């Protein structure tokens, strides 16, 4: 049972445009959400997070939006740069157990 | 430098052999995790530990074992019972309080031939 889902395996965007990566979750006990960026053969690096008490968190070019009623979050990158090309993972934390659960990832390709 | 270290980066083993992957952190983190990455399946949780001498199974624990004898170390053993051991293995750690990110090691690519 996939509790965190990223339904788009890949996304291609032109440099300078907005990249929108989506994530859905099924467990209403999740109360903290994170986005990680990963390059091949490396460990993921933390990008941005959001608590369930907020609906938006912004850090430079990266903004995460949370819609709790829809159990949906999204990561916006604007403007997109070629160096943003990587696999992006959405993750969620259960407020009862502390387990960090990941989605399948979306591979972003930003073309010059 | 504080960080989390996995070794080795690449590991080859013959089918039927047990193999142990190392994970060490000097971040003073209480919680440690092991994930497995396969193409198209994201990161799946194998085991996690929130305190020394205690650990819990994740979603795909079968064929794996762990120990947490020291706060800094969380080794993962891939046993011969694991049917598809070839994968990229990632270790992570975090502080125990809520709403905090986990930090990852660089991963170990295990290939069983």
Outline of this structure?
The complex is a heterodimer of chains A (112) and B (113). Chain A is mainly β and 112 residues long.
Structure, described:
The complex is a heterodimer of chains A (112) and B (113). Chain A has 112 residues and is mostly beta strands. Chain A has no helices and 11 strands. In chain A, strands 2, 4, 5, 9, 10 and 11 form a 6-stranded mixed β-sheet that branches. Chain A has a 5-stranded antiparallel β-sheet with strand order 1-3-8-7-6, with no helix packed on it. In chain A, strand 4 and strand 5 form a beta hairpin. In chain B, 0% of the residues lie in helices and 50% in strands. Chain B has no helices and 11 strands. In chain B, strands 2, 4, 5, 6, 9, 10 and 11 form a 7-stranded mixed β-sheet that branches. Chain B has a 4-stranded antiparallel β-sheet with strand order 1-3-8-7, with no helix packed on it. Chains A and B meet through strand 4, strand 5, strand 9 and strand 10 of A and strand 4, strand 5, strand 9 and strand 10 of B.
């Amino acid at each position: 049972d996939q509790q965190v889902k990223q339904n788009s395996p890949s996304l291609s965007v032109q440099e300078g445009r907005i990249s929108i990566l989506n994530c859905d979750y099924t467990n209403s006990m999740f109360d903290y959400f994170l986005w990680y960026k990963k390059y091949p053969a490396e460990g993921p690096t933390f990008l941005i997070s959001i608590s369930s008490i907020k609906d938006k968190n912004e850090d430079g070019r990266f903004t995460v939006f949370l819609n709790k009623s829809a159990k949906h979050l999204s990561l916006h990158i604007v403007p997109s740069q070629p160096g943003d090309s990587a696999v992006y993972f959405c993750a969620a934390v259960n407020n009862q157990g502390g387990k960090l659960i990941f989605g399948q990832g979306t591979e972003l390709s930003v073309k010059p | 430098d504080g960080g989390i270290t996995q070794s080795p980066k690449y590991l080859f083993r013959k089918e039927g052999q047990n193999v142990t992957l190392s994970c060490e952190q000097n971040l003073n983190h209480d919680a440690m995790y092991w994930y497995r990455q396969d193409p198209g399946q994201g990161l799946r949780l194998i085991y996690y530990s929130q305190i020394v001498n205690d650990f819990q199974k994740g979603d795909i624990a079968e064929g794996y074992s762990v120990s947490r004898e020291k706060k800094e170390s969380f080794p993962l053993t891939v046993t011969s019972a694991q049917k598809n051991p070839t994968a990229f293995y990632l270790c992570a750690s975090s502080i125990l309080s809520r709403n905090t990110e986990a930090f990852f090691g660089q991963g170990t690519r295990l290939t069983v031939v």
